[in-house]
Amino acid sequence: MDDLINPKGIVANLKAKSKKQALQELAKKAAELTGQPERAIFEVLIERERLGTTGVGHGIAIPHGKLPELDRLHTLFARLETPIDFDAIDEQPVDLICVLLAPEAAGADHLKALARVSRLLRDRAICEKLRGADSAEAIHAVLTESAASHAA
Fold first, then answer.
1. CA pseudo-torsion sign 15, 18, 21, 26
2. SS3 sequence, 32-63?
3. CATH number of 5-150: 3.40.930.10, 1.10.3430.10, 3.30.70.100, 3.30.1330.60?
4. CA nearest 38: which of 20, 18, 24?
C-alpha cells in the first residue's frame, strides 16, 4: 500500500455532512495531488456513484474512477469526523473513504489496486485501528503496515 498511498493523500478528520460534500472535499484534495482539475475528478466520482454506490458496507466506501490525463494511479484516504449516509449496500453510515483514481489506460492495474484496498479494508481489526488513529501519519502507518502483512 506504500506504493499506492501518498501521506499527503490522507485526511485524518474530514468534515462532511453528505456524500456529495465528502466527494467534493476529496476531489479538491485529489486535484492538489494530481494536478488535475477538481471539477473533472468530482464528475468522475459522481458519475461512478450514479452507476451504483461505492459504499461497500461496514462504514467503508471506495469511490473510484479513471481520468485520461493521469500518469499513474492515485489513492486518497479519509476518515470522517462524523459518519455520513453514503447509500451503502448495508445502509450503514460511512466513516472511512478510500478514493482510487487511475489513468484511462490502467486496465488491470486499476482492478488490482481496487482488490488490494478492498481486501485490506475488509479486515475489521485494521478498520478499528484506522478509526482510532488520530493523525494522517498514524493512518498512513496503519495502512502501510497492514498492507505489508496482507500482501497477496
1. positive
2. HHHCCCHHHHHHHHHHHHHHCCCEEECCEECC
3. 3.40.930.10
4. 24
Is 135 exposed, middle or buried (CB count within 10 Å of its CB: 0-12, 13-18, 19+)?
Answer: exposed
Q: What are the pLDDT digits (tens) for 96-136?
A: 999 999 999 887 888 888 898 999 999 999 999 999 998 99
Q: Which amino acid is at 110?
A: H
Catalogue the active-site residues: 64
pLDDT in tens, 63-102: 999 999 998 999 999 999 999 999 999 999 999 999 999 9
